[in-house]
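Researcher: Next entry in the queue.
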Amino acid sequence: MPKLWDETIEAHRRAVRDATLETTAALVAEHGLASVTMSQIAEQTGIGRATLYKYFSDVEAILVAWHERQITDHLKQLAQVRNQARDPGQRLQMVLEAYGLIVHEHHGSELAALLHQGAHVARAQRHLTDFIRQLLAEGAATGDVRDDVGPGELASYCLRALTAAGSLPSKAAVRRLVMVILDGLKPRA
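Model: Structure for this entry, 189 residues:
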């Protein structure tokens, strides 16, 4: 059992929350969504059920919190990728590829179907759309991206096209999808 008491109350709360999120995700991956109980989670994390219920009302609430953390981490990852590139065209390509690979790795499970609904997903989708829209606007300003279609509309097209990454057989196929998308974004001659 993990030691969950830290130096401060806030650090302790974070440790309990993180352990709960990780344990729940692992249990769902191992046993399936329907068979995980609050008792199992409490036992595996080494905390009492009463304490667990102070943090979360049920298994679904834990999974939603875990998913929110995953989404936040993915958005941070995309920002880091963006910041590594030299120019707008490269930034756009690297971000689209990184997002396509995220979709490829995390798509299609029973858990994904449950969690890809709700307000937190809608907020993240708006954030992601705006993030891509900004990259497209930068690319249009430098002549790397077509300017005959607005960047908001292009962002929507890109994100919809990248949903296909979830059903592709390999990372190489995801990279080819990104190249097709980028070809469609080139300025008209």
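Model: The longest helix spans residues 59-84.
Researcher: Noted, moving on.
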